[in-house]
Amino acid sequence: MSQLLQQIVNGLSLGSIYALIALGYTMVYGILKLINFAHSEVFMVGAYAGYFAATWLGIESMEAAGQAFPLYLAVGVLLVAMASSAALGMAIERLAYRPVRNAPRLTPLITAIGVSLLLQNLGLLVFGPNPRRYPPVLKEVTYELGGVVLTNVKVTIFVVTLLLMVGLQLLVHRTWTGKAMRAVSVNLDAAKLMGIDTNRTIAATFGIGSALAAAGGILFGLDQITINPLMGVLTGLKAFVAAVLGGIGNVPGAMLGGLLIGLSEQLVAGYVSPDYRDAITFLVLIAILIFRPEGLLGVVRQEKV
Amino acid sequence: MRWLVRGAVAAAVLAGLLGLARVIEGGLMEYAQRVLLLAGINVILAVGLNLINGTTGQFSIGHAGFMAVGAYTCAWVGQHLAPGVAGAVGAGAIADAISLNAALVSGAVTAALAGVIVGVPSLRLKGDYLAIVTLGFGEIIRIVFNNWKALGGATGYSGEDPAGLPAWTTLFWVYAWVVVIITVVRNVTFSQTGRSLIAIREDEVAAEAMATPTTRLKVVAFVLSAAAAGVAGGLFAHLQAGIRPEDFRLEKSIDMIVMIIVGGLGSITGAVVGGVFMAVALELMRDLEEYRLVLYALLLILIMILRPEGLFGSRELSFGWLRRKARGGEPAS
Q1: Which of A148, A158, A185, B270 is 20 to 30 A from B56 (CA-CA)?
Q2: Residues of chain B contacting residue A303, judged by C-beta atoms under 8 Å apart
């Protein structure tokens, strides 16, 4: 029983990270009908931005002196990472996706694969291929509740994700930018006719999605201890699966999908075989696409001639 | 009469290939030969993938999985067949040729079977969704090989011999298979089936309304293309001395896509050019080391932005086109 609870705790914290990344996929897909493959690399760059910010703020000397990293600096690191990823996401949209926005559907898809490859290899070049130990932006404290090991890191991951989700939900439903985003996702041309600056709205979507991915990157670094330039590949794919599972284009769906993927992965690793931990995600993906392609919370769209 | 002419042409092509392969093997450095071998394998991959991605317009980004199935089957069958064949006809070039081709055929068959298993459920989906499902299947195939202890697991399969898999992949056999695959794909593309495939690409709903059995044809194209990937995998295995699940990662599928995009989606000529280009360009850039893949990715993005139809678009280089060119007439569009 306590083992099951432990797997659930681990699954929920991992799933929260997937959910944060999934939001970026789901928002961009909702607006442009584009699988933004480069999103997984935006997540990776976010993690590195956090790493460099924390190092620059002198986390190593503090750690050596046995001091804890102050909370306001940790929040600062998070904001720096979110801002740099947002800038990167918007730059990718402006330089690579906007020129091919009106091309046939597959052209942007392949461009996205190209951007993803480019950032992976630039990452290998600039950051080096070796994994780096993630600085303890949050000092780990372990609690034990009836045989279940809970750390403040895992709790923080869950809480930060929840806060960002609520923030996003408010932004999408309570602000003009959010309203414009929803309008563009329904019909880009009609939105343009109604005087919405679609280019700005799309850029904002990329910026917000990328910032959330950066938050995911820092939480991932805290959770997994090390980061490397290829960390985005598998994590990004799983987050994408989470977005599809929840219903692509659907914000609460991304959260649900992320948590379900995180849980199923942990349970398979714990009870079936850790070797097949990655395979389960893809099996879920295939099953959902074949039996319910609109996702759990998605809306069925009729194909029109 | 026609069959006689065709037989004669085929025999002439094979004899020419054999002669050419001898000359090249005698005259070229081992390094250049290796590039040529890789180029041939790339051409098989690209021409096969082009049938589904280009001609039929159903995007697969999981073909590395079928290549893996072909490679593992071919390597395993080759290992278990070779002693028997050598016993029957005596060890030597003939025994190697028989073992290699039997193994390649078995690789093609298993890859085709994998294609049926993947294709039948997935091809009901369209566009991005299909792409992502094939990606998922490709990854699952790799994870299965990664955990298949009898086939070496993550360390890979290299047969019983400590020297690794036999080096059966020669220029002659690679290019003989290139000719076979191009002929098959060309004949399919320019048949009624091929026209239906193009119709599916252009407008699936309209094609279905014209009583085209869209799902069946999509599966046929997918399976043929998987079989070609299987052959390429088999040739690759016997070039490498050993194969690892790592060799068939998502990157491999993306390489194949880049080949057909550089040449032009939907053009067999383009796929051939793209396959050769990939082998040669990556070799030429070898000195740039880590910058190589950065340049490669940049190139892909630039092609997409500046010339998304690729070098050839959907045009073909054919004898008829050359003849018209020579006569100074209007080139076919």
Answers
A1: A185
A2: 205
Residues in CB range of A158: below 8 A, 6 or more apart: A12, A13, A16
Q: DSSP class of residue A70? A: P
Q: What is the pLDDT of residue B333?
A: 45
Query: Could you give the domains of chain B?
Result: 2-250 (1.10.3470)
- Shortest Cα–Cα distance, A131 to chain B (Å): 17
* Statement: residue A232 has pLDDT above 70: yes
pLDDT digits (tens, 9 = 90+) for B206-219: 999 998 899 999 99
Per-residue burial over A70-105, b = 16 or more CB atoms within 10 Å of its CB, e = otherwise: eeebbeebbebbbbbbbebbbebbeebbebbbeeee
Q: At A286, list the tokens.
A: 């295939």
Residues of B with CB under 8 A from a CB of A: 59, 61, 121-122, 124-125, 127-129, 131-133, 135-137, 139-140, 143-144, 146-147, 205-206, 250-251, 254, 257, 261, 265, 290-291, 293-294, 296-298, 300-301, 304-305, 308
Predicted ipTM of the assembly: 0.84
Shortest distance between the Cα of B25 and any Cα of chain A, in A, equals 36
pLDDT at position B329 = 55
Which residue did the predictor score with more confidence, B319 or A114? A114
CATH of domain A2-291: 1.10.3470
Contact B305 A283 (CB under 8 A): no
Does residue A305 surpass a pLDDT of 50?
no
Answer yes or no: do B59 and A278 touch at CB < 8 A.
Answer: no
Instruction: Give me the residues of chain B with pLDDT under 70, please.
Output: 1, 27-28, 328-333
> ∠ at Cα A137 (A136, A139), nearest 5°?
60
Mean pLDDT of all residues in A68-89: 92
Q: State the smallest CA–CA distance between residue A258 and chain B in angstroms.
A: 17
Task: Using an 8 Å CB-CB cutoff, list chain B residues near A278.
Answer: 139, 143
Tell me the average pLDDT across A281-292: 83
Residue A228 has φ and ψ, to the nearest 5°, of -150, 165
**What pLDDT, on a 0 to 100 scale, did the predictor assign at position B176?**
93
